[in-house]
Structures are given as structure tokens and as C-alpha cells.
Write a structure and sequence with these properties.
- By secondary structure, this protein is α/β, with parallel strands linked by helices.
- The chain has three domains: 239 residues, 3-Layer(aba) Sandwich (Rossmann fold); 103 residues, Luciferase, Domain 3 (Luciferase, domain 3), CATH 2.30.38; 112 residues, ANL, C-terminal domain (GMP Synthetase, Chain A, domain 3, 2-Layer Sandwich).
- Helix content is 30%, strand content 25%.
- It contains 17 helices and 29 strands.
- Strands 3-2-12-11-13-14-15-16-19 form a nine-stranded mixed beta sheet, sandwiched between helices. Strands 5-4-6-7 form a four-stranded parallel beta sheet, with helices on both faces.
- It is globular.
- The N and C termini lie far apart (61 Å).
């Protein structure tokens, strides 16, 4: 079998002057269709009509033919360089739509249907920003989509990709993009601002997909990617579509709702996919460990899993241990856990821990870390344990002073800065923000981190720091203290700062645990006391919400920014115990 090495599938250099001029995910698909033919390329595990699911598969040749059919239909309504929005549910059709747009020379915009709960406003703002000439969807969504698009005054053609006939194999004069042409716009969450589209070129995304294949240990013909992450998310797109196109890997997909309903479905898919590579946010590992019953574990065989990527902020050591304890008897090896760091502005992947050994964990002195110095905790000192994000994946990472941008010494906390061929070109139609984030040579990530003994550790988001009375607090540390109380539902707390008469003050929003009867006022008092004793911080307000009501992103992660906005807007419906 062929391993994706540093030299395999080389992508164009910055000047585009090598033999892969004109390459894209779609041209890679054509190459693998010729080599792998009738082998399965994409499997979508569809649980919408059955609890046991139905596998919908496309071979490499079938996928290539369907993509060509869509690309041919797009030649009329749109010209190369114009935008094509993908508003399709998670499915094999999503893969066809995205690659069809790319093959036609359009700039793909991976999005989601209007029916995604709580995100209609974000979708409308995104469509207004990117102004697509064509919208790709499926027949079952076309009517709903037409009604949604009507008031937006968009001049866009709607095409249902599931009705398009595959194109017969043969010679086609497809657009051959230059390396610096845009492949797609990856829109950020928009939780603290209107959505911003990261401009990613074919060179950017081919580079990062290749970096991911090499870092995660992908092998053509023996590796599958298994993902329930949404395809409109940066990691979901590269893991579920980009890396398979570059590496000739089989892709197994399912809907996020299918995972949330029964997380064992994800574990079963890993078991059925030899050489599986997968990724999930931190909460999903803990959720799976808690929700997969013992009788279901007897059907799991996880010894052939290659890599399980955790790119959350933060990656919690307790979560890794809980997941390993839950599934170690199913053959899961500790060394497959791969802590990672990335962001949409760098396509996705920036750094990852080495294969073959568990991720390194270091207990730092919490007070010194808040002051900006990474110092291992001595006896009796308060501890913040961080999980290493490993080493850069064929790119350069440094730590810079958040104010001046200048590099800081190892062991000093600062802003993570990245430079590499995978870093995007800026934000679509946002020159001022692009200059601030991308314009100084290095990508200014807005993330805080530290280089300690050669490895990268992420400490938090610069904008999420809780600064009270001149002292820095990392919100994840306070959230772990809050969630240690039995009244609080695990992985449900958000701590953030709000303006106050004398500067800033801290607020905690949380969900009460299911089936727990408690005096909420007494619980809030206990939480305040614990946070005060552990962190020297007084909580201005504690808001208790019913289970499932804390604002989250579309991938299920708690959004501190959305919580803060909802709190300040007065729309949180929980009980305030301030």
C-alpha cells in the first residue's frame, strides 16, 4: 500500500511553476477514478429512515461521473470564478455538489440547509455576503430553499444535483485552475460578528489536505476517513472530502444528528472501517464514553483505528482518559489519540502530536500561566494541565506578543502565529480585517499559546480571556470548576466577561443536570464559593438553563461568544441567580 509521504502528491509551489499546475480536488478525483475505478469512494450512513441505518455508496468512477454531470450543467448559469453555494444536507450528494462546483471552475461555498435549527440568520447573512450565482441542493430541499431565498433578492439559479444525469466517461474540456485561484470560501461561525469567508486557493487546500494525509498516517487503499462532522465545517470538509481526494482514501460519512442520537454509530463505523482516521471535538469523546452501553461495546473492534483527532479548546486530559477507559477493552490503543491545533484561516490543520505515543500532558502553575509564563507546577501550587498540540504539520509556527506581534521566548504565553502554503488569502470582501489578520507576514490567529520544550500548547482564545481587577483568568479553568458540581450538566458551562461599572466582571451560564433535584440557589452559592476559593474570582451572575439550552455552534460545541451576546441581549430564558 502507498503511504502519503512528504513527497507524494506534491502541490504547486508559491509561483505555481511545477507539474501540478491546474490541479484541484476535482482533478484528483479524476485521477483516482482511473486508478481505483469500482472501489468504494464515499459511503453515507443514512439513519433518517431507520435506526439501524442504510449505507449509500458511490464508487470512484460513479462519483467522477456524477461530478462531471453537475459540472456540465453549471456551465450555463455560472462562469468560472463565480460562487456556487452548497445548501445540501449531509450526504453523498453534498460531496457531488461541492466537487461539481470545483470541476466547473466555480468558487464553492460550503453551507447548510435553512432548516438547520438556530442558524437561519447566519445563512442569510452569508448568502448576502458571497452573492452566489448558483445554489446546489437536492430535490427534497428545493421547495424550502426557494421560499427561503425569495426575500433575499438573490439572482441565483437553484440546481438539484440528485436529478442530474451522470456524464459519460470521455474527454471533457474542464477548467484547469491556476494554483492561486480560489477553490472555496470557508465561512467562520459568525458568533461575534457577521460571517466572514476565508478565501482559500487550490494551492492552500491541496497543501493542507496533503499535510493532513501525511500527519495522520493515511495509506491509499487501506485507510478510510470516518466523520460525522458537518461538511460545511473546516475540519469536516478536509477530513471527509479533501484528504480522501488527495490521498485516494475511502470516506465514510454520517449526519451529526445521527451521532448525537446514538454515538455508538460512530464507534461502529470506526470498527467497520479498517485503518480508520476520525476527528471530533472534546465533548464528543466524553459524550460517547457516557452514552454507549456496555452491551454495544461487545460489537466494537477498534484495534485497527489509526488516528483519533481532538482539536478542541481545550483538549481535556480527563476526557482522553475517560474515552480510553471506556473503549480500551474494545482494542482501542492509547497512542491513536492525536491532539491537534488548527483554524479555518489556515484551511484547518496547523499542528498535531506525533503518531505512536500518547499526547504529552504537562501540569503548569495556574497563577504563573495567567501571568504569561508556562512553568511546571510545584508542590501545593494550583495546576492547569494542558495537552500538547504537538509539532507544526510542514509549516512554521511561532509565538508573538499580542500587542507588538514580535516573537517571544519559549515558555512565554503569546499569540499563535502561522506561516505556510496552507494559510488563506484573507476574508472575502473584508480588506481591513484581512490586513489585520493576514497582512503582517504571519497569520495572527487570535489564539493564545506557548512553546514549551519544543511543543505547542494552546492556552485559550485571546478574546475569551476573563480579565477582572487586572488579573487574567482562562475561562476553561473556571468552567471545569463549575462543572465539578453535581447539579451542573457535564460540558455545559460557559464563563465570560461582561462590562461593569468598575471594568469587567464574570458571568457563568450553565445547564442543570438531568434528573437531578436541587436547590438552585444553594447550588449557585456553592459554585460561587468554589470559584472564589479555586480562582480568587467572584462570579457576578450565575444563570441556570434547562438541559440543551446553552448556546452552541452547529457542531455542538459550547459558544462563549453566543452565550455572552444572548446574556447581554437579555434573551437567555434560564433562572438568574445573581
Amino acid at each position: 500500500m502507498e503511504t502519503i509521504s512528504e513527497t507524494a502528491f506534491a502541490v504547486p509551489g508559491p509561483d505555481g511553476a511545477d507539474h501540478l499546475e491546474g490541479e484541484s480536488f476535482a482533478t484528483m478525483l479524476g485521477r483516482w477514478a482511473g486508478l481505483l475505478g469500482d472501489e468504494v469512494a464515499v459511503t453515507f450512513l443514512d439513519y433518517r429512515g431507520s435506526a439501524e441505518g442504510r449505507a449509500v455508496t458511490l464508487s470512484w468512477r460513479e462519483l467522477d461521473d456524477r461530478v462531471s454531470g453537475v459540472a456540465a450543467r453549471l456551465r450555463g448559469p455560472a462562469r468560472p470564478g463565480e460562487r456556487a453555494a452548497i445548501l445540501t444536507a449531509q450526504s453523498a450528494d453534498y460531496v457531488v455538489a461541492f466537487l461539481g462546483a470545483v470541476r466547473a471552475g466555480l468558487v464553492a461555498v460550503p453551507l447548510f440547509p435553512p432548516s438547520l435549527p438556530g442558524h437561519a440568520g447566519r445563512l442569510a447573512a452569508t448568502l448576502a455576503d458571497c452573492a452566489p450565482k448558483v445554489v446546489l441542493t437536492t430535490t427534497d430541499l428545493a421547495g424550502e430553499l426557494a421560499g427561503f431565498l425569495g426575500p433575499l433578492d438573490l439572482e441565483a439559479t437553484i440546481l438539484s444535483v440528485d436529478t442530474v444525469e451522470p456524464a459519460a466517461a470521455g474527454e471533457h474540456d474542464w477548467h484547469r485552475p491556476a494554483p492561486d485561484e480560489l477553490a472555496y470560501l470557508q465561512y467562520t461561525s459568525g458568533s461575534t460578528r457577521s460571517p466572514a469567508g476565508v478565501m482559500l486557493t487550490h494551492h492552500n487546500v491541496l497543501t493542507n489536505a496533503r499535510q493532513a494525509c501525511a500527519a495522520y498516517g493515511a495509506e491509499t487503499g487501506s485507510t478510510s476517513t470516518v466523520s460525522w462532522l458537518p461538511l460545511f465545517h473546516d475540519m469536516g470538509l478536509i477530513l471527509g472530502l479533501g484528504a480522501p481526494m488527495v490521498g485516494g482514501l475511502a470516506s465514510v460519512l454520517m449526519d451529526p444528528i445521527a451521532f448525537l442520537e446514538r454515538p455508538g454509530r460512530w464507534l461502529r463505523a470506526l470498527s467497520a472501517s479498517p485503518g480508520a482516521i476520525s476527528a471530533a471535538p472534546n465533548f464528543a469523546y466524553s459524550y460517547s464514553a457516557s452514552r454507549v452501553p456496555e452491551e454495544e461495546k461487545s460489537y466494537l473492534e477498534l484495534s485497527r483505528v489509526v488516528s483519533l483527532i481532538n482539536g478542541s479548546e481545550p483538549v481535556l486530559p480527563a476526557t482522553i482518559a475517560k474515552f480510553q477507559d471506556a473503549f480500551g477493552d474494545c482494542g482501542l490503543r492509547p497512542e491513536v489519540h492525536r491532539a491537534s491545533y488548527g483554524l479555518a484561516e489556515a484551511t484547518v490543520l496547523v499542528s498535531v502530536t506525533d503518531a505512536g505515543a500518547p499526547s504529552r500532558q504537562v501540569g503548569f502553575d495556574r497563577d504563573r500561566l495567567a501571568e504569561g509564563a508556562a512553568v511546571p507546577a510545584g508542590p501545593g501550587a494550583p495546576v492547569t494541565t494542558l495537552v500538547s498540540c504537538g509539532l507544526p504539520a510542514q509549516q512554521e509556527v511561532r509565538i508573538g506578543d499580542p500587542d507588538s506581534g514580535e516573537p517571544v521566548p519559549d515558555g512565554q504565553v503569546g499569540e499563535i502565529q502561522v506561516i505556510g502554503a496552507n494559510v488563506g488569502q484573507g476574508y472575502w470582501r473584508r480588506p481591513r480585517e484581512s490586513a489585520a489578520t493576514f497582512g503582517a507576514g504571519y497569520l495572527a490567529t487570535g489564539d493564545l499559546g506557548v512553546r514549551f520544550e519544543g511543543e505547542l500548547y494552546m492556552t485559550g482564545r485571546l478574546k475569551d480571556l476573563v480579565i477582572v481587577d487586572g488579573r487574567n483568568h482562562y475561562p476553561q479553568d473556571i468552567e471545569q470548576t463549575v462543572e465539578s458540581h453535581p447539579t451542573v450538566r457535564p460540558h455545559s458551562a460557559a464563563v465570560f466577561a461582561i462590562p461593569h461599572d468598575k471594568g469587567e466582571t464574570a458571568v457563568a451560564v450553565l445547564e442543570r443536570a438531568k434528573a437531578v433535584e436541587a436547590d438552585l440557589a444553594a447550588a449557585a452559592h456553592a459554585l460561587r464559593a468554589a470559584v472564589s476559593a479555586e480562582h480568587g474570582l467572584r462570579l457576578h451572575d450565575v444563570v441556570v438553563l434547562p438541559p440543551g439550552e446553552v448556546p452552541r455552534t452547529s457542531s455542538g460545541k459550547i459558544s462563549r461568544a453566543l452565550c455572552r451576546k444572548s446574556y447581554l441581549d437579555g434573551v437567555l430564558t434560564g433562572r438568574r441567580l445573581g
